Amino acid sequence: MMEFRTGLRGLLAGVAMALACAAGPALAETGVLDRGIGSEWSSLDPQVNFDAAAGLILMDAYEGLVVYGPGGGVLPGAAESWTASEDGKTYTFTLREELKWSNGDPIKAQEFVDSVFRTLDPATVSEKGYYFYSVVKIKGAEAIANGEAKDASGLGVAAPDDRTVVIEMETPAPHILNIMGAFQIPPLHGPSYAANGAAGFVDPAKLVSNGAYVITEVVPQSHVLLEKNPNYWDAANVKIEKVKYHVTEDVSTEFKRFQAGEIDVTYDIPVNQLEELKTTMPDSLFISPSTETTYYSFNLTRPELQDVNVRTALSWAIDRELLQDKIVKGGAIPSYSYAGGFDPDYKGPMMPGAEMAQDDREAKAKELMAAAGFGPDNPLKLTIVTTVAEDRVRLAQGVALMWKQVLGVEATVEPQERKAWLDTFYAGTWDVFADNLVGDFAGAETFLAYMRPSAEPGYNWVKPEYDAQMDVAATMPDKASRDAELAKAEKILLDDVIFAPIAIEPSRILVSPKVKGWVPSAAGYYNSQYLTLEP
Amino acid sequence: MLRFVGRRLWNGGLTLAALVTLTFFVMRLAPGGPFSRNRKISPEVQANIEAAFHLDEPLWMQFGRFVWGVLRLDLGPSTRHRDYSVNDLIASGLPYSLTIGFWAVVVAALVGVALGVAGALRRNGVTDYAAGIIGVTGIAIPIFVIGPVAQVVFGLKLEWLPIGGWDGTWRSLVLPVLVLALPNIAYISRLTRTSMIETLRENYIRTARAKGIGGRRVLWRHTLTGALLPVIAYLGPATAAIITGSILIETVFAVPGIGRHFVDAALNRDYPLVMGITLLYGGLLILFNIATDVVRAILDPRIRHER
Asked: What is the CA radius of gyration of chain B?
């Protein structure tokens, strides 16, 4: 088996060298981009994968109706244009002419419909269906996901002809373009799927894709190699010939591989070296906000925490700047709101008291706590449940320390392994939950929709006004008026202090100086087709 | 001899069955499941996902399904690596772990025995002290320290060898093999040395010398055969541990073997993969123990006539 692989690799290297020699002066534009993807990709099945690392590979190999350009902005992808109906409920996408799959077959609009259906179909066992019935509400999508509808006849995604995809939704959703990329809606090549089933997605000999690259080698736990797709519509502008995604479980090893030049772009960095890297590799280090937010949720079923003043005092006693600058030191951005900070157009509210200086907040917090009947003789006792990740534990310890110093609260930190931590949340056996949420796109709505008491009962937050305000927002077809309504909802959320906002988590990436065109993207979209390699 | 082997195999089978049964049920005691997510998906979809992996069935039925699968050599689908079955993952990772493990055992055995013998023959000489220092270093400094140091020295500073990954050539083998072999070299050289010194004092060695057999022949034929018995007893289980993949080595050197699955699968609650790896590791450990017993029995008649 290994001899075979080695042989194949030798052959490929030989072919590559021959091609490189044949290409002559164009040599500078060719080469292999080596990218890190952390510990492991979970699946290369484009309708199943729900993992960010594999998402990077799949977004190079497939293209959705739109594509996310440098920085993550929406650009025309397989669709050259689109229109929205007046009520904002119907989007009509027009595919480019002469679009081809990597094997030369024409791409038909129906293949996008098939993709959505396969994602929703319970037989596929995909967790991504909620994009189509929750993030946006496509007609008939939920019925398919629940197993009530067995075919696509009632689905609000249709292909009236080979170049038109029509999406009909129950409520308007101006953010629909944020989920029309390859991660969410990669087309499904009918003949190869019919012949090979899901096994075809990991077998380069059978794999057919439509992105800038095609997968040519897959070695589990080791790497995935992609080569330029000559049939891609924009192949002329794809500069890098090959992209190799390397699995490196250990973040320190990945860093050393970067230093040795084995990897050009890392997946993460060793957090404890962040400060040093800022001075030693300032040009390679990219620290930018991601769509992951950290907040400390209060258990509303605990009698002591049912008093909003106690929750406010706890939130105010946290010095968010000090926490990130001196204790966690992981590059996170201190946060005073929940859903803001990802989309510059969204003007959301801040948490109550955000306008005060930290000293004033702490003074007020002491008063509130005393008024609630807690003092040195009667301290509030809390348990913070967090995951075992080193920086998360440090964060929780920092918060506990601040609560102790400012309010005399006796908080203990209980680190739990991730899966246990998730179960603990739903079991409700926590006082304070070190919570985090990764948004589906860089916008406020994905976070605010998650906090709906109807959508997430785990917080035990009873607030019909919030659901009602979110329902109002959901009827707004244009982004500006929708954002205004969403901001009102966020105010209801923040005023109730059911959690203390803590920070926006960063993405931390090292990019070799020879890689050009790297632009930070909050949603983590970094297609290789927009990058170039200098020799 | 055949009865001896048969008895060991039967006992080994029972041990393995007990191990696997225990693992199956203990694994389920850990909180969380393979599809725990912090984004709540609709109950219907969640139920459907669980049904697809038979997680909705009663535990005894799931266990029955697992046993039936094992009998058909089908370990089921991985819940974390959705593109592969557990059989696929083992088939893909095992060759890497085996390659590194095999060379590490060879290097450890050859170097360890050589150092041990040299130390025993020139007791308190320079070689003995050198071997002693290597021994203490190899045992005392853990792999997760030596590994990264070796990467910095040979990969970053000298640029002789790759830091990690698998490029298909011998170069990516060197560091993982040496670092994996080092603690074993240490143990084996210490074991060999002690055992050699003891054996050299045995009566039968004196008898052999008295009979006028040459020094070299006494050393190779009589002393070493006797002295290696404890080394062989150590090598059996050690080989099983080494070739089934070292978690640390594979993590530090980014080797695509199966060792990493040990921890990953448990953390991700990938029940089928945990069971597959346990079965493989347990089976190999038992087999190598039996093989060790057989080799010792061949070398030492006292063992095979026990009981």
From this structure: 24
